[in-house]
Every structure is written in C-alpha cells, then in structure tokens.
Amino acid sequence: MEGVQLNLISKEKLEKMSSMEKLRMILDEVKSGTIVVLESGLTPEEEAKLIELTMLEIDHENFVGIEVETYPQKSGGFFSKLFGKKEGRLTVIGPANKLKTLVKRDDLIKALVKP
Amino acid sequence: MSLILRIKKKFSVIFKFLKKKNRMKIGIYGPPNAGKTTLANRILRDWAGDVMGSVSEIPHETRRARLREGVTIEVDGKSVTIDIVDTPGLATKIDFHDFLKYGLSEEEAKRRAKEATEGVIEAIKWLDDLDGVILVMDATEDPFTQVNITIVGNIEARNLPLIIVANKIDLPNASPARIKAAFPQHTVVPISALKGLNIDTLYRCIAEKFG
Q: What is the domain partition of chain B in residue ranges?
C-alpha cells in the first residue's frame, strides 16, 4: 500500500530517551520520509539543536530540511520559572518536501501531507 | 537536563547580571528576509555613520554573523553602548531550488544554500554568548513560525532580555497587532527599518532594556 508513514511517539517513551537519542531518532525517521508525532514535544534547547543537526544533514538533493509543527510554549508556574523546566507540547516533524504548514495559530495548526 | 545543571544555569544568569558588564552584546535574530541587516544598517548609520552589510531580496543574503563593537545610542540624555551581532536568518529548511527563481545559476544557488546552512548553525551557536536579543519579525507575515517560536523559547530559557521588532510597517498589509497578540509576554516595537518609521521608540526601548 502506497502512503506516508506516521510514527506516534508517546510521552513515556520520550521521557526515557536522552536529548541526543530523541534528536537522532527524529532525524533518521524524517530523512527516511516518515512523519514523526511527539506527544510531549521538545524543549526549546532541543528544538534549536534539532535545527542545527538538520542543517548539518541537508545534502541539497534528497534532504532539504524539516517542517516542524508545534504550539508556542505556555508560561510556567513559579517552580518551572525557577528551575527553567518547560514541557514541550504536541509536535509534528516531517521532511520539508512532504509536510507543509497551511495555518498556524496559538491554538490551531493545519498542515498538508504530500504523498 | 538534571536538576543540578538547571540550578547551575539559573545561578550563572544571576551572576552574569550581578557582574554587570560595561557593554552588552546584543544579537539581531529572525527568519530570512525579515530585515535584520536593514535594521543593523539603520542603527549603525544613525549612531556610527557606517553600515553592517549588504541587503538583498534573495533570502539568506547574510550567511556569516557580523559583529560591530561599541555602538553608542543616546536617548533622552541617557546613553547606552552595545556590541551588535547581525546573525544569518534562521530556517528549518534550505532548498537551493528556491534561489533559482531569483536568476542564480544552479552552481551559485547550491553554494548559497550550503553557506546558508552553515550560517544557521553559526546563528544558533551565538545564542550562548549574548546578553540580549532583538528578534526581527516581518509584520506582513504570520508570526507563528517554528523559527520564531524556537528563538523566543530559547531566549526565555536563557532569561535574556528580548525586544521583538515588528518590521516593515510601511507595507500596506503589515499587522504588528498580530505579532503583539502572538507574543503578549514580550515588548513588541512596530517599525520600518527601511524607512526609519518609529525608530526613536526602538532606540528608547533599547536604552531601557539593555542599558
């Protein structure tokens, strides 16, 4: 059957992985054409690192980058401000040539997946 | 990140603040073609009498970060001296085919794309060496891009002072209100870096935030 593969990764699985494990898994899947859905998303630092790693892997022929769909971070409470821990939100990451953002607002994201 | 590391990071920010540098290093960030270099040129032309670099309608014109030290801005009898870092535009994808539309040869487009990817990495690395950020957004575009969200998230995580510039207000479809609504927790200053509209408000804001 022809189609686009979607991998939905649970929060529990993500919590067991280190940052580099998560980013490597995401990039490997996305480079193979899969769309990855993360239940709990990435931290801002991980998002920046993902962009950095993506730039290193762009080959200008088969892989031109990623498209990331996520909501802005919510402001945390006192302890999250003190310790800087912010939880990521639902995030969809795919190859830039397959996933296209249509509408992005703070409470709604519309995207198109090209086969 | 472990709890100890997070506490260490928090305290390093406090110590950095207490140490109070004579001059703050301010990064100009944003997506490609938001007007970062146009703004850097405007600031330098107004306060130092020269420019930072060339601008172009072709995205990723700035592919190396440029540092200009010791720019003094005087507002209402108060003066602030800052170092300005004009960074390459941040992006999650760079396709050389996009540059062909502007008349570049395939070889030139591929070279530009390669240099642009290196520029994005350099811009991200600079985040660790800054004391404040001016984030330039194109007021005619949707502000909820991944690049904007990632930059704001990283600046908040590092507790750096931030000014969001809603640029290109000289264009008829500009909507700085959309940017203010998207990032209500931050100072948003609507300007036109190209025409100099409302630029004095930005200088006042720079003096307050980074002074």
A: 23-210
A56: containing domain:
6-113
Euclidean distance between CA atoms A58 and B14, whole angstroms: 38
CA closest to B90 among chain A residues: A51
Name the least confident of A71-85, B13-27, B76-90, B176-190: A71-85
Contacts of residue B70, defined as CB under 8 A and 6 or more positions apart, other chains included, come to B23, B81, B83
Closest CA to A108 of A76, A75, A74, A69: A69
- Superfamily grouping for domain B23-210: P-loop containing nucleotide triphosphate hydrolases (3.40.50.300)
Tell me the percentage of chain B whose pLDDT exceeds 70. Answer: 90
Q: Report how far residue B85's alpha carbon sits from residue B77's, in angstroms, rounded to the nearest whole number.
A: 25
Q: What is the DSSP letter of B128?
A: G
In this structure, is residue A1 part of a structural domain? no
What domain count does chain A have?
Answer: 1
| Cα of B10 to nearest chain A Cα, Å | 7
- For residue A86, the cross-strand partners are none
* Residue numbers of B between 77 and 96 with CB closer than 8 Å to A: 90-96
